[in-house]
Amino acid sequence: MKKKVIIIGAGTAGLAAGIRLQTLGYECEIYEKNDQIGGRMYQIREHGFSFDVGPTIVLMPEMYRELFRFSGVNPDDYIPMTLLEPMNTIHYPDGYSFSISSNLPKFIGQLESFSERETAGYLRYLSDVYQRYIIAKEAFLEKSYRKPRDLYHFKTLHALIKLRTLNNAYSSISSFVEEDKLRKALSFQTLYIGISPFSGPSIYTIIPMIELLYGVHYIKGGMYQMAKAMGKRFIEMGGKIHLNHEVDEIIIEKGVATGIRVGQHMIKGDLVLSNADFPWVMKNLVKQPRDKGKYTDKKIDKMAYSSSSFIMYLGLNKKYHTTVHQIHFASDFKKNIEELFQGIVPEDPSFYLYSPSQIDPDVAPEGHEILYVLVPVPSLHRHRIVWDDDMIMKLRNLVIHKIQTIKGFEDIENHLVYEKIFTPQTFESLFHLQFGATFGLKPTLMQSLYFRPQATSRKVKNLYFAGSSNHPGAGVPIVLMSAKIVTDEIVRDHS
Question: Quick one: 272 exposed, middle or buried, by C-beta within 10 A (0-12, 13-18, 19+)?
Answer without folding.
Answer: buried
